[in-house]
Amino acid sequence: MKTAEEFNRYYDVNLISKLRDLENERKKLLRPVIFLCLPFVGSVVIFFLNFFVLHFHHLDRAIFVGAILINGTLGAVFLPRFFKLKKTLKVKYKEEIIKEMVYFIDPSLSYNSTSFISQSDFENSKLFTKGIDRYEGDDLVVGNIGKTEVRFSELNAQYETTDKDGRSRYVSIFNGIFFIADFHKDFVGETIVLPDTAEKLFGKLGAMFQKMNISRPDLVKLENPDFEKAFVVYGTDQVETRYILTPALIQRIMDFQKKSGKIYLSFLYSKVYIAISLNKNLFEPPLFKSMLNYKLVEDYFKYLILMVNIVEDLDLNTRIWSKN
Amino acid sequence: MWIGLIIFGCLILLFVIMFNSLVSRKNQVENAFASIDVYLKKRADQIPSLVNSIKGYMNHEKAMLAQITKLRKESFDSKIGSNERVDVENKITDSMNKIMLAVEAYPDLKASHNFIQLQRSLNEVEEQLAASRRAFNASVTDYNNGVESFPMNIVALMMAYKRKNMFVIPMESRGQTN
Question: Which of A66, A140, B2, B72 is the least crowded, having the fewest Cβ atoms under 10 Å away?
Fold first, then answer.
């Protein structure tokens, strides 16, 4: 496992020179934005002068038309170039920085910036029952950590809904990192561990609703009160669920939740699926901040380490049962 | 008159709901107990393979092997009561632990493929057994809550349902590595 200190040294030796080059490219990319912004800011100033000070008496409307034309022309010239360069910068950043970081953490892992966990894998996890209308993702990491096969990527799954005015909009089902690993025990049933929102909000009444939830298997009450407060567990077999969720694994899941935030877990087809909910897009280059911002790269490193360490955190490499 | 009938109807309905709930909790306990039995039998079935795979190596522990074989036979005896059965199963757990400790002195045996496979499946059964005990305890808790909480305790008294005891989880199962 790589530590923060090791990453710091790696950053100084390997990443900083690449980030300097990328920073120069970022600055180049932003130059046309300034050309776009100046006439726009000028137009806004003229408008406010007209409206509040001169009350449209002294300046002609032609000035507005002129400002719009200038903005439109500059936009038509610079915007396509801007987006093209932005895309190039993004690809370079992911290939030169994120890919390198993944390799630094574990050389046996491979990274693909445009691939992601498939929709069928996401749906097979049975973590989210809502139908998906829009599904996208990026930053797929695949490989073996010890004896355990893992893969994870960023995902954003949404469903379509219409508001009261009949306009359609997309609402998030899940946004964050989705992780799949081979589980170290064989099992045939389903065990689903979800954040316990109903019982937290409605107490015993919430627990009653959970028991009546027909979209899920049977409710399983485990003996750890702290775990029961944080999660609700559903399983197709009471014994098998406890065979998977041993007292030690329950404690490990609770410790992992403290590090990662809101998590969803399911155990199906001898695999463990973990969804970590996030409200930000990871592994993206900063556009309006310096590339040389260490905190940002360190944040990405922490997320990568968090994911890779799941194997250790949940002790998935221990193979003392029939499954090898 | 009508109000009285409605109240009486509600009381009957409440009684039926509580009665059925208690019956289902009692059946759940019996079902959970049966699953423990399944895993105990599964463990007992592995004892001959364990004895066969290690008897060639362990010359000084013949008595230990004979003891576990005898205990296995006793566990299958349909005449013994539930308390004696628990005693026999506890003795099997104890003997298995002793055998596994004794194996440490035989590196060849420890490294043999057959023994490693056997050890893995024994670990698996032990964990399944621990899980079934936990499932049993959970259903006993659910049942006891029903038997002791008001007003269900009145129905339980009428049905002569009494509090049930939980399994004491052995220390080695509590300290499972995973």
Answer: B2
Is the minimum CB–CB distance between B176 and chain A shorter than 8 Å? yes
> Touching check for A246 and chain B: CB below 8 Å?
yes
Asked if residues A274 and A265 have their Cβ atoms less than 8 Å apart, the reply is: yes
More confident residue, A275 or B121: A275
- Respond yes or no on whether the N-terminal peptide bond of residue A285 is cis (omega within 30° of 0): no
* Percentages (nearest 5) of helix, strand, coil residues in chain B: 80, 0, 20
End-to-end CA distance of chain B: 63
> For residue range B8-58, what is the model confidence (pLDDT) as tens digits?
999 999 999 999 999 999 999 999 989 898 999 999 998 998 888 888 888
Tell me, yes or no, if the pTM score tops 0.90.
Answer: no
Three-class SS state of B52 = helix
A303 Ramachandran zone, left/alpha/beta (phi>0; psi -120 to 50): alpha
Q: Is residue A93 part of a domain?
A: yes
Are A145 and A227 found together in one domain?
A: yes
Fold classified for B22-174? de novo design (two linked rop proteins) (1.20.1440)
The answer to whether B123 contacts A320, with C-beta atoms less than 8 Å apart, is yes
In three-state secondary structure terms, A233 is strand
Residues 107-126 of B with CB under 8 A from A: 117, 119-121, 123-124
Closest CA to B141 of B39, B38, B32: B32
Q: Do A68 and A24 fall within a single domain? A: yes
Report yes or no: A95 at the B interface, CB cutoff 8 Å: no
**Domain locations along chain B:** 22-174
CB-nearest to B128 from A238, A243, A248 is: A243
Tell me how far apart the alpha carbons of residues A192 and A219 are, in angstroms, rounded to a whole number: 10
A275 forms bridges with which residues in the sheet? A178, A264
Give backbone dihedrals phi and psi of A6, rounded to 5 degrees, phi first.
-60, -40
Mark yes or no for CB contact B135/A242 under 8 Å: yes
Give B-chain residues touching A246 at CB under 8 angstroms: 127, 130-131, 176, 178
Report helix angle B62-75 to B2-55, nearest 10. 150
SS3 category, B11: helix
Pairing of strands A218-220, A271-277: unpaired
The number of distinct structural domains making up chain A is 2
Sheet containing strand A110-112, edge to edge, reads A110-112, A134-145, A148-162, A168-182, A271-277, A263-268, A191-195, A231-235, A218-220
pLDDT band at A58 (very low <50, low <70, confident <90, very high): low
Residues of A in contact with B35 (CB under 8 A): 239
Other CB atoms within a 10 A radius of the CB of residue B133 amount to 23
> What ipTM score was computed for the predicted complex, to two decimals?
0.80
